[in-house]
Design goal:
The protein is elongated, with a radius of gyration of 14 Å. The strands form 2 sheets. Strands 2, 4, 5, 6, 9, 10 and 11 form a 7-stranded mixed β-sheet that branches. By secondary structure, it is mainly β. It has no helices and 11 strands.
């Protein structure tokens, strides 16, 4: 199995920046698409950003121009650089990864989440 561990969440003021990290460990053949999601209090989980193995990135409209997703496959790590943070960005942020196991089985791994709080 694969474990994803997020870090970097904390309390930050409006307009500030944070960089979230998500590192994958365990036995796997490859990691395919990686993504960041978030769940704000009282809301459904939403997809924030995705990145393919070739580095193609897509973003949810509200974060375009402010957030940047990146990855380093040598480190099995994906990052989310968040700039110009707003109170509405407050949420628990989760990373996910499409994983191919050595036997060819494919599944989506999830991290445990990291809390980002943006104060007004």
């Amino acid at each position: 199995q694969v474990q994803l561990v997020e870090s970097g969440g904390t309390l930050v003021q409006t307009g500030g920046s944070l960089r979230l990290s998500c590192a994958a460990s365990g036995r796997f053949h490859s990691i395919n698409n990686m993504a960041w999601h978030r769940r704000a209090p009282g809301k459904q989980r939403e997809l924030v950003a995705t990145i393919t193995r070739t580095g193609d990135a897509n973003y949810e409209d509200s974060v375009k121009g402010r957030f940047t997703i990146s990855r380093d496959d040598a480190k099995n790590t994906v990052w989310l650089q968040m700039n110009s943070l707003k109170p509405e960005d407050t949420a628990v942020y989760y990373c996910s990864a499409g994983v191919t196991l050595p036997g060819g089985h494919f599944y989506t791994a999830w991290g445990q989440g990291t809390q980002v709080t943006v104060s007004s």
